[in-house]
Design a protein that fits this description.
Shape: elongated
Structural class: alpha/beta
Distance between the termini: 75 Å
Radius of gyration: 24 Å
Strand order of the largest sheet: 3-2-1-4-6-5
Order of helices and strands: HEHEHEHHEHHEEHHHEEHHHEEEH
Largest sheet: 6 strands, mixed
Number of strands: 11
Number of helices: 14
Strand content: 15-25%
Helix content: 40-55%
């Protein structure tokens, strides 16, 4: 059957042929119990005897959906027991976390889910120091399209519209190029059990709204709309990779001094770039100083570019206690224990 060849043989074996996954690696399937994750688990389970890897499952109970979530947990536990697959379980409270951190329930659930993934990966990796450990996530083509549209309307840059990566660190998404109807056909052909999440039909969740109210309508305009959006994302990813490579070269050319808590750039060399490369250089600076770009906004980046172009000196206070100072021909980024504004610094 074409579906058997595509999911069981082609996809799983391709990961081995390309060296992404190798013999003796440990694979942890993020198993919600839904159709997509169960198809992914079934595909890798069936080839486990032929290809040498250890297969585990990880289920996160988000503390929402009440009895339905409890049903999902029981379903996954029973399935894993029947298949002799070790199950890692994690319970979190997404409602409480969302309220405490002023987040939507959807954002909180995702944050806690990936925190659970990270914690489990670290625990398993510490016990398997001679093997690679990967977490397999069942994102498919439509999830990719949802992400691209979501990022686009949120105003993200090229990196955001490049979509989800098939491989990102220890996260692997083997089904990312697979259409949803192929997964549905596979599940039907092989009688793969699964449970339905009732919230998938709730358009109050952003991704559900995008899928049901936007993607479905786009596919009525052109039934290949999703394919075209994914191809657009591939091109955006290639462009983003090129910009990041060029930004790294310009960063290396522009840097005067780099220490643990400070980076000094040559303003003349910095200003001798297009804004897109200036933005890339600034992103690298923040990655070096604080290892994250979260909460660093376009406004912050634009303020730095404007500061560098000023004839006189100046100062900026930014998130994570980062200060930026223009002094003569230097642009100085400092990670402070305290964030001191220019007025407060003058009083010291």
């Amino acid at each position: 059957m074409i579906y058997k060849e595509k999911i069981l043989d082609q996809i799983v074996k391709d990961f081995f042929r390309t060296g992404i996954i190798r013999d003796n690696d440990v694979l942890i399937v993020a198993l919600s119990g839904g159709m997509d994750s169960m198809a992914l688990m079934d595909a890798f389970y069936k080839l486990q005897s032929e290809l040498d890897y250890e297969l585990l499952a990880l289920h996160v109970h988000h503390g929402i959906r009440g009895l339905e979530a409890d049903r999902d947990l029981k379903f996954v536990k029973d399935y894993c027991k029947s298949m002799n697959v070790k199950l890692i379980m994690s319970k979190v409270n997404a409602k409480e976390y969302a309220k405490k951190n002023n987040m939507t329930l959807e954002e909180a659930a995702r944050k806690l889910r990936y925190d659970a993934f990270d914690k489990s990966w670290k625990a398993i990796s510490s016990k398997n120091t001679k093997s690679n450990v990967f977490i397999l996530i069942a994102h498919h083509e439509k999830d990719q399209v949802e992400t691209i549209i979501h990022n686009l309307v949120r105003g993200t840059g090229i990196k955001g519209i490049a979509g989800i990566k098939k491989i990102s660190g220890y996260f692997v998404r083997p089904l990312l190029d697979i259409k949803k109807n192929e997964i549905e056909k596979y599940v039907d052909d092989y009688d793969v059990p699964y449970v339905n999440d009732s919230t998938n039909d709730d358009i109050n969740y952003t991704r559900n709204f995008i899928r049901k109210e936007i993607i479905d309508k786009l596919e009525k305009i052109n039934n290949k709309a999703s394919e075209h959006i994914v191809e657009f994302a591939r091109q955006a990813r290639a462009l983003n990779d090129f910009i990041e490579d060029e930004s790294k070269k310009k960063f290396d050319e522009t840097i005067i001094n780099i220490k643990k808590n400070s980076i000094i750039l040559d303003i003349k060399k910095f200003n001798n770039n297009e804004n897109i490369l200036k933005t890339g250089i600034i992103r690298i600076v923040f990655s070096e100083l604080i290892s994250t770009l979260k909460d660093i906004t376009k406004i912050n980046i634009n303020d730095i570019i404007v500061l560098a172009e000023k004839e006189k000196g100046g100062h900026l206070d930014l998130p994570y206690n980062i200060t930026v100072d223009k002094k003569r021909n230097n642009l100085i980024f400092t990670k402070n224990t305290k964030n001191l504004s220019m007025s407060r610094r003058k009083k010291k």
